[in-house]
Amino acid sequence: MDDQLKFLLYRKDDRDAVFAFLHSVYPPDYAERVIRQWDWKYDANPFKQTPEPHVTLLKDGARVVGLYGTFPLPFYIEGHERWGSLGGDWIVHPEYRDRRLSRRLWEAYNQPQITLHFSWQNEASVRRRGRHEDVNRVQLAPLVKPIDFGHFAHQLSGRAWTRGPVNVAAAGLRAIARPLRRRVAVDGVTISRIERFDERFDALAWRARGDYPVMVARGERYLNWRFVERPGARYTVLAATSRNELLGYVVLRSAEKGDERWGYLVDFLVADHSAPIIAQLMDAGVEHLRRDGVKAISCRAAVPPYRQELYRCGFYVVQWGPRGYLSAWPKEGDPDYAAFRDVRKWFITMGDGDLELDF
Fold it and tell me: Choosing a second label site near 318 at 20 to 30 A (CA), which of 62, 82, 127, 144?
């Protein structure tokens, strides 16, 4: 009976029950990945605002049968510092589905110290959350650049997407036929690989904070947590510098996707929207991933002017497959309600949130 169910805040002594629940609802590899990330995302998250992480549990007696996990992120909103919350793991045990419990889990979430909330959503989670006026969302179409175009088209031609092969072939031919602009290196600018982020990234984030109404504050502490300390994944960071001044960076990743190796442009930021620096970094990133043996490169989220430079670099919009949504729901009355709610104007990349934490 639903009246026996309880919505409770997670405590560390729930840990074993939560992990047993994860094993009961996810495939083994995926459950182990979520568990491996648990301390990093939740229990030991350096940004959490309370002693316990921001996780709501659905319990039937002592048994965990659902959870909704969130974690805080630092933001710049209209140039000033704020905290926002990212919706992450959200699942109900199959035995308890079709009872609107996913929606009730979300409604039970309550972190009064954080009133600005966002998440990446697929079609299923949009249906669970519902289409309500308090949520503003934008659908994102990823960009893809084939590296081994023949292999890429051959792999897709045997799959069950009705329009996919035709669209890929047409878009691929356009990418090949598109005149390639001759790239000119910027005098005095060096692209080099770095192992950790330092205080220069605080200065870069502060310098860029006014370029967009809303952006995650990409300072030293956040970037090291997100891309250096994350368990189970390795990233490559390329930085553009001139006389030791940091002008921008790009974060790359390669990973197996089925029987193919894919590359990803995960995160990037360039001072003053400099198109030449963006182009130089993107070219260097593509070349690094090409040498790593990827068949194609994906960029799941890019805003202007980065998007235009990716077009010039041979990326095109994918017209097939599932789409993702960026959704925001600030609490009405928050002074930053209007800016945070207008997700179309955000600076956003694949690295913001949990878009690539599931592989």
Answer: 127
